[in-house]
Specification:
about 15% helix; 3 helices; D-amino Acid Aminotransferase, Chain A, domain 1; disordered N terminus; about 140 residues; alpha+beta; two-stranded antiparallel sheet; 5-stranded antiparallel β-sheet; single chain
Length: about 140
């Protein structure tokens, strides 16, 4: 079985719009539901499809605006306080307002490890965290 994402970012933004923007000057919605996968028998092919490696972590959006970073779960909860080191690094990116879709992973023995990200959530120090931002192909 393969997993296929079935919405575009622009479609996701439409779904997220009822939650509104932080304020009228903000170009970003408060939260955009992530593109989730669905099981299919075979992976689709063609130039309109982009495939990514399955990472073992937490699906997390990074909302970056005016130097402020929020890490939002797939349900819109703000987990910024759980991962201050990730927030600190993303704040230094120096981007225009951005809404990134990605996976936050704990790295154990060189590869993503779900037990490592769980341990980091429990406050265990010394765990290497990596935020993998997903790319979107422009149309």
């Amino acid at each position: 079985m393969s997993r296929v994402e079935n919405r575009s970012i622009s479609q996701a933004a439409k779904f997220g719009s009822p939650l509104g923007r932080i304020n009228k000057a903000s170009p970003l919605p408060r939260w955009i539901p992530p593109q989730l996968c669905q099981l299919v028998e075979t992976a689709p092919s063609g130039p309109q499809w982009l495939h990514e490696i399955k990472l073992d972590g937490f699906r997390m959006s990074a909302r970056i605006e005016r130097g402020r970073v929020q890490l939002l779960t797939r349900t819109g909860l703000d987990w910024s306080d759980k991962y201050p080191s990730v927030v600190e690094v993303l704040a230094k990116v120096g981007t225009k307002p951005a809404y990134l879709d990605g996976e936050l992973c704990g790295i154990g023995e060189g590869s993503p490890s779900f037990s490592q990200i769980q341990a980091a959530s429990d406050g265990s120090g010394g765990i290497r965290l990596v935020y993998f931002a997903f790319a979107q192909r422009s149309s």
